[in-house]
Amino acid sequence: MPRRPTHRDHGRSEIWSRPALEATIKRASKRLGSRLRSIRERCGFTQEVAAERAGIHAKHLGVIESGKKANVTFATLVALAAAYDVPLSRFFTTR
Q: What pTM was estimated for this model as a whole?
């Protein structure tokens, strides 16, 4: 007997199958990574110190800052904002 769909059945995302959207996401990921690096450096932290403060691995932070990780979790961004003692919005705005 087939399983009934539930509210958790969302289907497969089409984001990565749309070239224009994929390109937009990659550009935004690069900008976010660059912004995170800039804020970390202004705080005077190495990647190792920043990662320790945020509770993530330094290599993970390096991947995020390189812009190669397009799906950074909200929890990771909140942890980095706390580690840098800045509001989360600072990662998405320029000053």
A: 0.82
